[in-house]
């Protein structure tokens, strides 16, 4: 299994953090001015950003839960059956719904060039402009279909796809990667998630084809990474990297991670008495 390099981890972490503001300057991170498409949720906010530059990598950034509706979907953890060969498999119903709900795709460069137009006016001009072949398609479709419409010509041009997301956005990234792999088997480069809940049942874990390219980052006692809290029903996929007490642990069993986290949490008030805490703060005296 390939290792996730530090600069790759930092890149995806920054992009996940920047998924939450309504806007940011993507060109500061090496992407082309025109290398940005956005998929908008029902409240008019970007839920997925698709970014690319001169390199061979296209990055899909999935935003996590933001409102009560998003959080309720996290609780919809009953199985959704996916027909597949040789056997069907089952995934989390709520996260499956998130990537199959109807949405709108917005070309970011076009949107920025016409700030004074209404959304309907932008849509009329947008559809008549013939900017690229995929932008001439229907602007209202399932999220996963919107993603396909954007990445297909990019894949055909020789680019590979990386997916990243935080919280439920990480679950969306995993399910999207599984779906896209079925249509573009060699196009997925890697999947990197942060604070991600489990996305499927045991049948999905056995079916998932991207274990070697998937990295699930967990931090200390992040309770969301233990959800849904139904033992032996929902399962994670890929390689788990646990950030705890300044170290990185790989694929540590869930019960050990949970017990160490609880013990660390209980002992935290006492840990501030340890001498290394005082040594760490020695720079304070150099300034006075």
TrEMBL record:
GO biological process terms on file: lipid metabolic process
Kindly give the Pfam families that the UniProt entry links to this protein. Answer: Lipase_3
Annotated Fungal lipase-type domain residues: 59-230
Which SUPFAM superfamilies does the UniProt entry name for this protein? alpha/beta-Hydrolases
Q: Which domain of life is it from?
A: Bacteria
Q: Which PANTHER family match?
A: ALPHA/BETA-HYDROLASES SUPERFAMILY PROTEIN, FUNGAL LIPASE-LIKE DOMAIN-CONTAINING PROTEIN
Q: What is this protein called?
A: DUF2974 domain-containing protein
Lineage of source species: Bacteria, Pseudomonadati, Pseudomonadota, Gammaproteobacteria, Vibrionales
């Amino acid at each position: 299994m390939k290792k996730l390099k530090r600069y790759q981890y930092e890149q995806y972490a920054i992009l996940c953090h920047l998924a939450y503001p309504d806007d940011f300057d993507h060109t500061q991170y090496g992407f082309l001015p025109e290398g940005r498409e956005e998929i908008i949720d029902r409240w008019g906010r970007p839920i997925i950003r698709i970014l690319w530059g001169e390199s061979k990598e296209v990055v899909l950034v999935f935003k996590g839960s933001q409102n009560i509706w998003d959080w309720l979907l996290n609780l919809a953890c009953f199985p959704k059956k996916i027909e597949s060969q040789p056997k069907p498999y089952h995934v989390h119903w709520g996260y499956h719904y998130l990537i199959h709900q109807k949405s709108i795709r917005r070309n970011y460069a076009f949107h920025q060039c016409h700030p004074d137009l209404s959304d309907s006016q932008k849509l009329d001009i947008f559809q008549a402009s013939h900017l690229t072949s995929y932008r001439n398609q229907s602007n209202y479709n399932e999220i996963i279909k919107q993603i396909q419409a954007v990445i297909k010509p990019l894949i055909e041009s020789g680019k590979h796809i990386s997916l990243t997301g935080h919280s439920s956005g990480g679950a969306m990234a995993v399910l999207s990667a599984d779906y896209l792999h079925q249509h573009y088997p060699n196009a997925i480069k890697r999947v990197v998630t942060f604070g991600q809940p489990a996305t499927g049942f045991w049948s999905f874990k056995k079916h998932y084809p991207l274990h070697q390219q998937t990295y699930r980052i967990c931090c200390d006692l992040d309770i969301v990474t233990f959800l849904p809290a139904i033992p032996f029903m929902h399962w994670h996929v890929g390689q788990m990297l646990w950030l705890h007490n300044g170290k990185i642990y790989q694929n540590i069993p869930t019960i050990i991670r949970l017990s160490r986290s609880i013990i660390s949490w209980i002992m935290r008030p006492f840990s501030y008495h340890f001498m290394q805490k005082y040594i760490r703060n020695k720079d304070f005296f150099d300034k006075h």
